[in-house]
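To whoever is on call:

I kicked off a structure prediction for a single chain this morning and the downstream step that reads the tokens threw a length-mismatch warning. I double-checked the sequence; it's 104 residues and nothing unusual in it as far as I can see. Pasting both halves so you can look.
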Amino acid sequence: MSKKGIGSLIVAGSVLAASAAATVLVKHHLDSEKIIDKVKSVLGEDSKVIGSWVEPFYQRVDVNGRSTWGIVGGVTTMDEFDVAQYHFIADAVTGELLNIKKVQ
């Protein structure tokens, strides 16, 4: 293969890898929004969410002895005069909330 052919192959591979990474990031962002909405629903209408965060990448998590790819994050709520934080883990494939707990 010529140098020009190798260069074209490298460029094509880089473009393919970049587009795959962009697709994963967009999917992660959309999944994260859906999961934050689920967390808000679980906490109820009385809890006003004033902030939220989600780890930027899918993570390998163990929940109840089961290992899976997860989305990890948290929300901050305000009820009357109390501010509370909750951490959550959701299944990256199904979007199911696997764990949500109030941080002390």
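Update from on-call: the warning came from a stale cache, not from the record. Cleared it. Sanity check on the structure: Residues 15-26 have pLDDT under 50 and may be disordered.
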